[in-house]
Amino acid sequence: MRRYLCCLLSQIAIISIILGLVIGGTPGGTDVWANDVRPEEGHFAPDFTLKTLEGNTVRLSEFRGQKVVLINFWATWCPPCRLEMPTMQQVYSEYKAKGLEILAVNIEPDAQQEIRDFIKELRLTFPVALDTDMKASRKFRLIGLPVSILIDRQGIIRAKDIGYHDWANKASRTLVESLLR
């Protein structure tokens, strides 16, 4: 009986630790939600640092307190990515001066020329970051492409869309405008 009780208590302790990690806490910690970072609406966006196509370094947390950020994970071979990029360009052109930043995060290794050709063809002017080792992509737990994540000025994820999204439609513009206020 004593051995059974000891095993049972050990299993409960392990389950408690795993459950704490799954919901974002730390064993023994009290910060289950307050400082939680996970790639879901209502939570802080995980930080990342990437090189842009031009060779500059961009860090997501540098926009916190300053800009609304639309991150779009994409690839040149992705048809829905190609379709939504012009709608992103429309919104970027309209709201850039009001505080919107777009980071188009490409996940393809060794595809810089294809990316340049893609950008030139679609006449895109927003920054393109390169996630060739997919470290940033893994932080956001991507399960497909494209994935768009809209982050408010405080760094909190306000929308996450998997698949094609028309950023120029009325509902999307209303959402962006509400975050820019």
TrEMBL record:
GO MF entries: antioxidant activity; oxidoreductase activity
Protein name: Thioredoxin domain-containing protein
Positions of the Thioredoxin domain: 39-181
Source domain of life: Bacteria
Pfam families, per the entry: AhpC-TSA (PF00578)
